[in-house]
Design a protein that fits this description.
By secondary structure, this protein is α/β, with parallel strands linked by helices. It contains 6 helices and 4 strands. Strand 2, helix 4 and strand 3 form a beta-alpha-beta unit. The chain has a 4-stranded parallel β-sheet with strand order 1-2-3-4.
Length: 125
């Protein structure tokens, strides 16, 4: 994000007009470690984040919402709301992303993409 800020000549504290993507299965590993990625990215004020390919993407959406709320309560960067995109690979996941997780944008990708990640079975083809 620092390189992008420099390239766009944006001072620290100004929202960056970009999105940062996260893979849910990878977040399950990194966010449980002593070096979580999401808070440090959100502190850089990206316009949006997107989440895909995970068993519980809702917990990451909730973390973004909580981070934004805390920042607002502290008076840091009032008015900045991180847009949340969720890549859904099933109707069920899209329904949860809209209703339960309150994602701002749903990207519908289809089940085959999940099969490519996890290995295809006859039920995916």
């Amino acid at each position: 994000m620092t390189a992008l800020r420099d390239a766009l000549d944006l001072p620290r504290g100004v929202p960056v007009p970009t999105a940062v993507g996260f893979l849910g299965w990878l977040l399950d590993k990194t966010e449980a470690s002593g070096d979580p990625r999401i808070p440090s990215i959100l502190d850089e004020l990206p316009a949006a984040v997107w989440f895909s390919f995970g068993d519980d993407l809702g917990k990451w959406v909730a973390q973004v919402r909580a981070h934004d709320e805390k920042r607002q309560q502290e008076g840091r960067h009032p008015g900045h709301k991180t847009l949340v995109f969720v890549v859904a690979s099933s109707v069920e996941e899209a329904t949860r992303a809209v209703g339960e997780w309150q994602a701002d944008v749903i990207v519908v990708q289809g089940e085959f993409s999940r099969c490519m990640l996890n290995g295809c079975s006859s039920s995916c083809v």
